[in-house]
Amino acid sequence: MGVRKHISLTIDSEILAEIEKLRGLAKRSTFIEHILKIGLEAYSKHNREDSSQLSLKTKHKKGVF
Q1: Residue 8 within a domain
Q2: What CA–CA distance (Å, rounded) separates 23 from 11?
Q3: Within a domain: residue 34?
Q4: Which of 5, 33, 40 has the alpha carbon at shortest distance from 19?
């Protein structure tokens, strides 16, 4: 991993409560970074799948298939 950067953000109290409940003994920042990585990977995968499906639909409409 690269250089760490400090950020500040606001978060819904219910989300923070869920983070607190799930993180156990892990540092809050470490836990949040971990779940953000998981979420970003899932988001990227979802977008790649959507792009692939859109590409197939576009090719089908153009008569490529």
Answers
A1: no
A2: 16
A3: yes
A4: 33
**End-to-end CA separation in angstroms for the chain:** 43
Residue 5 included in any domain: no
The per-residue pLDDT for 49 is 73
DSSP codes joined into one string, 15-42: HHHHHHHHHTTS-HHHHHHHHHHHHHHH
DSSP state of 63: T
User: Rounded mean pLDDT of 29-41?
Assistant: 95
Mean pLDDT of 52-57: 60
* Contact between 31 and 16 (Cβ < 8 Å): no
Q: Is the pLDDT score of 54 beyond 60?
A: no
